[in-house]
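Can you make up a protein sequence with its backbone structure tokens?

===
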Amino acid sequence: MPNKAIDLSTARILVANDHGIHAPGLRVLEGIARSLAREVWVVAPETEQSAASHSLTRMRPLRVREIAERRYAVDGSPTDSVLLGLRQIMLDNPPDLVFSGVNRGGNLCDDVTYSGTIAAAMEGTLLGVPSIAFSLVTEGAKNALWSTVERWAPEVIEPLVAAGWPDNVVINVNFPNLPADDVIGIEVVSQGTGKTGQGLTPSIDPHGNPIYWLGTENPGERLREGDDVEAVLRGAVTVTPLSLDLTDRPTLNAFKAVFP
């Protein structure tokens, strides 16, 4: 069953990301949150943490730096940031929502498993707070059109929080890197297939040692009608609910017959 609707006019929002406390996408999302909600807090990594996935720092202590009122930097991962935000910084005044992003670069298809942006929203969800991850699909683009996110994000957020969604679901939102007026609308779509890192480019470092660059793949090679990649390439803002329950039910039931 969906969670109850959230009244944005009285809401408290925690904003996090994976590109770090000084990332332009974080400032964009913070501004969007402030335009919608009563109170906004920011807790984000001190430095760039792209592709950190759902990593948690356990073998050393974490430090938190207060930058300004309700704005903190954590010398750890996106997951660390949300965990400290909820369990320490905002312990006495917990948020109603967690926003993560805005990531510069799409978080689509199988790449969601690598994403620190998605992971921050996952951590919020696991700690009982409805969470949304936001990304701008800028691959190959010289300029990030943040104004498109500013224009379209409220049209995504307001209906979502009015409707609510189940406890174990993260909402993944991707914006096409197009002028705002060229966006064709908002589409609810499934997660596509395909992953980053398929191609390897070997090279040699200055000391003569072999090194390897992880590559990307052409998203056009894995298009499937109705999924996130196909829709965003057509110019749509995509909304994809991601379940944190990774159990494959058909296989579970099949194995019950194997191990009666």
